[in-house]
Amino acid sequence: MSDWLSIVPLLLVATSGLFIMLADAFSKEKAELALVTAVSLGTAGLVAVGLLASGSALPPLPEVLGSYLAVDELSLFFDFVICLGGALSALVAGGYLREHELERGELYVLIVLATFGAMVLARSTDLLTLFLGLETMSLSVYAMIAFRRTSARAVEGAMKYFLLGSFAAAILLFGGALLYAATGHTDFAGIGAKIGSGEVEPVLVLVGMLMVLAGLAFKVGAVPFHMWTPDAYEGAMTPVTGFMSVAVKAAAFAVFVRILVVALPGEEVASMTSGWPPVLIFLSVLSMVYGNVAAVAQKSVKRMLAYSSIAHAGYILLGLAAASVVGEPAISGVLFYLLAYTVSNILAFGSLVMIGSRGKEAVDYDDLAGVGRRHPYVALPFIIGVLSLMGFPPTAGFFGKYYVFNAAVQAGGGFVWLAVIGLLASAVGAYYYLRVVVVMLMKSPAEGQVVAVPMKSGYVASALAMSGAAVMVFGLLPSWALDLAISAAQKLIG
Amino acid sequence: MSEPTTTPTPPPPPSRLGWLALLPLALFALALRAFLRGDVPLEVRHAWIPSVGVEAAFRLDALALVLVLLITGIGTLVFVYAAGYMAGVKHRGRLFALLVAFMVAMLGCVTADDVILLFVFWELTSVTSFLLVGFKHEYETSRKSAQQALMITGGGGLVLLAGVLLLAHAAGTTSLQAMLASAPAWAEHPVVRGALTCVFIGAFTKSAQFPFHFWLPGAMAAPTPVSAYLHSATMVKLGVYLLARLHPAFGDDRFWQLTLVSVGGFTSVWGMLLTIRERDLKRILAWSTVSALGTLVMLIGLPGEGAATAAAAFLLAHALYKAPLFFVAGNVDLATGTRLIDELSGLGRKMPFTSAAGWIAGLSMAGIPLSFGYVAKDVIKAAKADTDLFQWVAYAGAFVSAASFAAAGIATARIFWRKRPLRPEHAREGSIATWLPPLLVASLGIVFGLFPERVESLLTEAAQAMGSAASMEELLTDDSASLSALAMIIALGVALFLGWDRLHRVQRHFRLPRVYQAAAWYEAMMVGIPAVASRVTRRLQMGHLSTYTAFVLVFALAALGYVVAHGPALRVPPFELALGPTELAVAGATLAILCASVAVCVVRDSFVMLLVSGLVGLACALLFLFLGAPDVAFTQFTVEVAFVVVLASILLRVRRLDLVVAPKLPRWHTLSRALLSLGVGAAVAALMLVGASFEQDPSLTEYFSSRSVPDAHGRNVVNVVLVDFRAVDTLGEIIVVTLTFIAAVPLLRLLRERWRGPDAPLRRGARGMSPKAHIFDVAVRGLYPILLASSVVILLRGHNEPGGGFIAGMVAVAATSMLSVARGARAALAKMPLGPHRLAATSALLSLASGLPALFLGEPFMTHLWGTLPLGFTELDVSTVLVFDVGVYGAVWGALGGLCARAIEVDEPHRDDPSTVTGAEEVTP
Amino acid sequence: MELGLGAYLTFASVLFGIGAVGFLVRRNALVQLMSIELMLNSVNVVLVAANRFHPDNHAGQVFAFFVIAVAAAEAAVGLAILIALYRLNRNIETDRAHVLKH
Which residue in A123, B225, B394, B681 could disulfide with B82, CB within 3.0 to 4.6 Å? Predict the structure, then answer.
């Protein structure tokens, strides 16, 4: 059994997925599925982080799996991040569904399956597993968005995301097929080795690479492949939006890292003149600027967070691009950023859920007016989450931003100015993040406006408590998590 | 400003929260003790984030000590004062808590010896000050100015982060001490200019320098203790502190000097000019604070030995007179309910202590000899005289001194001195907690004025920390020139004081155009950025999918174009066409595919289009067959069939619902349904016949033929790969398939329930079947078991010949689809063992379990076991692979079959039981 | 078989392009779904054709198999979403669904 040690988190999630599926199929009682889901995902996450922190050498997988799933610290790190996001989302969803009387068990099954897909995606070392993981995750998420099937918004969001997502998946697949045609390999290492040997048709490789990158850029919501993001985020139920913004994004970036480092490391494809770094820079600058500017215009907090997630994708892409020069510090920065982003985003979306109740969901800025004065204990987590997203010290988000931009500055040259552009763009971001704080603490609801009353839910409250604690702990004592990220990045680069 | 009350009531007793003052007092005593014992500089270091070299390092040197003493010393009195001032005010506990938090953040900021740590505390002061300014949030002005202060200082902080990062990059360390020590080595680094610009913006926003100066008077909406603490003595000095801290590294840099002197000098003059515009006592003080901060910034930028000493001295002096003046203004406000200087006069008799404090502080502010203000200004003058560069600075300084003399007069003489008329009548002194603190601080200003040597060592050391060596003593010159200059300034100041009201009236005629007002720029940005942003999103994010697609495609094409233009040249591969029968077939298939594909995009009728796209799929399957991939072809074939069937029945239904008035439709519809279902059966049957006759391309099997039979007992290479070498991937695929079911079925379910409503009668007509259709119905009933049986055959032989779990499952799916087209989903699903949901879940578990036996034999999971079962007439290979394949088969059949049936039957009334409505649906929000 | 890989790639690219254009120009969600199927078909053509030139481990064929299977699952979920859309809007014109914007 020790052969399987390194993918125990994955197996845990798969088994619990089947179990929850059966429980949903054979039983009428849906009440505690949220707790079961959260506990099993949480356990998987803890196992992953335990394996990671123990620092012991991981046994290789048996041959059937060896070349398709990675056995490394990076995967364990992402197992942790993704499971954390999934578990917290499940808790938030538990409270949400009950409050809004939407209790149907399949959402939890979908959450677990999407988490599973995300984990497979994050550990894939082969285009085939990449595709399987991607589709498992995406299909679950499409269905999660359309979960509230009588809502025109939900279905429209799901439709747009589904059609564009399938379109992007087709682009990614075609790119992958071209890479296969050029190299004869579907595994990243084989592709990388073959490209390195120079016996390949360069145009095929370049076009294939561009198409794969475009497909992944779509999944992370980078401009100009971002158009689905605000619509899908707004259409989905808030807990689902939270899940999408953390687990899906983390997994997509995980595979991004792996492809860039393992499959496309060589001089031919990683150079500033004709490789992926200029592509990433292009995506990154557009995303940072457009995401922040567009977020300013929003009246809906959910939509604002959607645009801000585009901006965050831009920051992370900048870190990835810097990895072509500095390597490990940039990648560990990206890893830490994703961890910080996960807990902060769950905190923000969870608080948004908590502030609303049946018949009156909190969605717009106006719904938040004066919440801080009426219900300070609900507003506080939201404020912490938003400040962390803004990169306000001493929260986790601040250090995430610091590491990523620091890595970019270390990369030197043009990256220094890119980092400055990023920080200036994030100063624009201060406008809309702080607006949340101002509205909650200072503004009074307009005359005759229906005031949002916070729901009472132990699930949501505990999710907020955990993610809030994580935001503060990773902010005040970032060393522990950062060291894990650094060791994962070092092992990946070798 | 509340209405004046006519009946005097005794002042409320000070709040007990005032005892919190003991906390800063203790800290003050500790800091003072450390200084007196010569423990300074004091260092505390802890590893914080060792991997990036950031330390929790604190260092208390003389420069920091000046600030620490101010923060704790004035902090003590602010707590005492707040106890009196806020007595009886609601939520005062929150104010005290925030004050404590703010004080901690300030102390952290000035003692931090790591730029990252400094930045952390810097931003904390921004957020606590926001909460303090907005304390009275029920007032609109209060909210607005809190927001303004936060936006400017918080946003400036982020720019500062960029500067700090760049500095750390240039210096190679985040430690302030190390940075300053190695400064000459990196001061020429190319990013330093950019870094300094960012640092300047950060410091200028915090210290209210032009053009960010306007937030400070706005922040006067804060309660007075807050104004006295944050906006005169401590927080606004942070920017100055940061500049002073960095001074040793850049003091000789021309860019540094020019920026600081011009911005600081301009701010100091401009702030004083704006003072004249105000009638509100607190705002007058605020503008004069802006001016003083400008002077400080300018002093830091001035080259020469004395400037640093002057800055340190003035920093202290300003805090010692401005804080008490704020207290005084607060007392006047409390006592009279107004802060407008036109409504106040002769308060001295009614408020003797407050008045005394005001007088003393005013003397210092005016720079009258014997006050510490005089000492400081004298030092400044000497420092300026040192500089040969900035002559105009001296003139500006003279004006600023005179104007601050006048402003001091306004803040004291005008409201306390004039005997008559006493306005307002009811004014009276507050509790001791409100008048003692200003009196104490202000007196300190006189004590230091009389005995400057008391603070000399401290200030000189602070100046040394800023990289300057001049001691205060050298700068204190009592020559006649300085006396005559003093006389001139006083004369000018008196003139300004006397002409204050007249100047105020005059300046009204000189309103600055809004273009030149920084505040107007801020307002425009606050309105403009959202406007521009919403214009951008309105243009780009219109909600149409086609726009989104166009975006993706345009950029994809641009990227491709870039590659073609700049990338390596495309080597055109040799294109030899040897015409054999296979090549002809391939060419025919490709041509057909292309034509049909174009047709898909062009044809308007969606039904025709679906059939054409089905043809494309089938042609592709054919192509795969020719290319030696029969398994892929098989799969493609079955999937395509199911896809077309399901889509066709949905299209038919959609069309019927849309064109429900068309009379002939039902019959056509029934007919087409019948044809469709027969077509399915025929296609699948044909497929099996064709597929069985094809062999795999022999060249492909070379690799596995040697390997797969011994290893995995199979001759069908692809299937062997699927179940054995890639078993776990196949497991993943099962999960995808099962997931599909879970994802899609709930979406379909609602349709049935909802359309049972108002338009149910419309569909009743469509239900009846014509006799002709009935014949097809019978045919389908016969075909169904045949298809199922063949699917089982495909399943069992899959290991050796084309086939296997997935394909067999798809054949079964096709059978179920066919049956549900002909007889309804309910009938079709009833024929499925266990029902779709449970069949899928159980089968998925079964295939997972098939890997378990290996574990008991010590083999890795998913290693399949083999045995042979003699059946008399033949031998059957029995293995866990078969179990695995059966699992795949069941999962595919259950999930996709159930799904197809439901999709086909969607919104159709049940044939058997029209009254099954289960569960209430949620209401659309 | 004397046809070079280039010929298959050219064919697949054209097919892919047709699919992409179809996805762009048509507004009917079902047609767009079919366009995606076309694009996936072209992917499979590349995979199966390239498999002939890299026959070491059958990666291309196996991949194609998965593409088909997963595409079927994708289409199923998509259909369900489109049906839900049709139920609410009474049409499946994708551009007529634009409640979510800006």
Answer: B225
